[in-house]
Amino acid sequence: MDRPAPSAQPGDVLRRKAEEHLAAKPEVFRSVTADAPQSLIYELQVHQIELEMQNEHLRETQLELEKSRDKYYQLYDLAPVGYFTIGENGLIEEVNLAGAGLVGLDRSQLINQAFSRFLTKDGQDTWYFHRKRVIDTGTRQQTELAFQRKDGSVFFARADSIVANDDAGQGNQLKTIISDITELKKEIQERRRAEEVIRRSLAEKEILLREIHHRVKNNLQIVAGLLEISKSKTQNQDMIDLFNEAHSRIHTMALIHSQLYQSECFDRIDMGRHLDQLVGYLLSTYGAKENHIRVLVEPSDVQLTLTQAIPCTLILNEVIVNALKHAFKDKQGGSITVSLTKAIDDLVRMTVKDDGVGLPISPEAEKPVSFGWEMISRLTAQLKGTIKVNQGQGTEVVVEFQAGPYEDINDLISNHPV
Question: Potential cystine with 288: which of 1, 233, 283, 316 (Cβ 3.0-4.6 Å)?
């Protein structure tokens, strides 16, 4: 089996090219004397051509190296960030033009100078711990430094540092990239100041809104007190009933403002909590315990805006009072179930159901006829909702409406002035 020919060496290739070059120029032998050995002359000519070709190759390589070096220095010097090489002794060994420009000095004025010299006092402490952390961990670390220029001005920079080998191959150098973040810090400080102004303004408005609800609650309590005084001066039961109804309506609204006054959130009402308070008040006012009437309030997590909470609560007040007064006249007690739910599509469903004797319905209408029911109809229209009365074993009143968006605090203040 034939053995494969050995691969040509670089010297062999160069000699072959030199011989080809010499063969193409036979005139080089005309100057050779007759008594000079032909082979020696040939070898000298080949060697001369080899040297010329090597020199040409070296010139081309040198040119490529110079081009690469120029590109490197352009990228290094003209980079938008500062590059610093810092030795084990903390002195600056290399710096690009951008780094010198950030400090405000010529590059020659920075070489062999302590890097910490160009930092503020606080910056020097930060740099010490940053440099120690980079060397101890051997990983890339980042920090913020405060620099002081020759003219005394201060600028802030983000420093990214890694450990690098020096000329002796020891990992004692730090390669640090400096990025000016002065404008960014100014923007952050401005934003924080603006946020603080907004926070203070919001706090002032919350205090004002809390005061509004406190005053409204107090005014409603004054009106309720005047009604109680007026009621005490009459023996007419019909008048007493009217005073009680008016008092319960006023108290219903006062409960909402009382809850808002004590709440941290002014744009919504916790209707579950409010419903418990309302029912508790109505049970004590209308003697439900003495009449053996039980009221079951189903748990509710519905929250409504003040604009919707007041008419909603007034409707509940009217329907529950109506049931307490009239549903069990000919019965020995009974029960009332109250529920308030909200579906995924924000449809609020309010239901009051009793097992009493039912309500009087006019032949021409689907709803009972009275001042209270007229008020319920108007309040439902205010909510842009619907009302349905179901008669069977007792009475079921269902009111449905769409929950509205929560109000902005500025709208709350403008809509409810002191």
Answer: 283
For the segment 198-235, what is each residue's pLDDT rounded down to a tens digit? 888 777 766 666 666 667 767 777 777 777 788 788 88
Same-domain pairing of 264 and 135: no
Per-residue model confidence (pLDDT) at position 169 = 62
C-alpha span between 13 and 17 (Å, rounded): 6
Give the number of other Cβ atoms within 10 Å of residue 289's Cβ.
11
Number of H helices, E strands in the chain: 10, 12
How many CB atoms within 10 Å of residue 115?
25
Domain co-membership, 358 together with 381: yes
Specify the pTM.
Answer: 0.48
Side chain identity at 159, as an amino acid letter?
A: A
- Averaged pLDDT, 330-341: 85
**Nearest alpha carbon to residue 274 among 244, 300, 248:** 300
Tokens of 405: 């968006």
User: In one letter, which amino acid is 317?
Assistant: N
* 118: containing domain: 82-180
Whether residue 228 is found in the same domain as residue 369: yes
Q: Which of 76, 98, 123 is the last residue of a domain?
A: 76
Q: What is the DSSP letter of 407?
A: P
Domain count, the chain: 3
**159 & 289 share domain:** no
Residue 1 in domain: no
Please state the rounded mean pLDDT for residues 342-365: 77
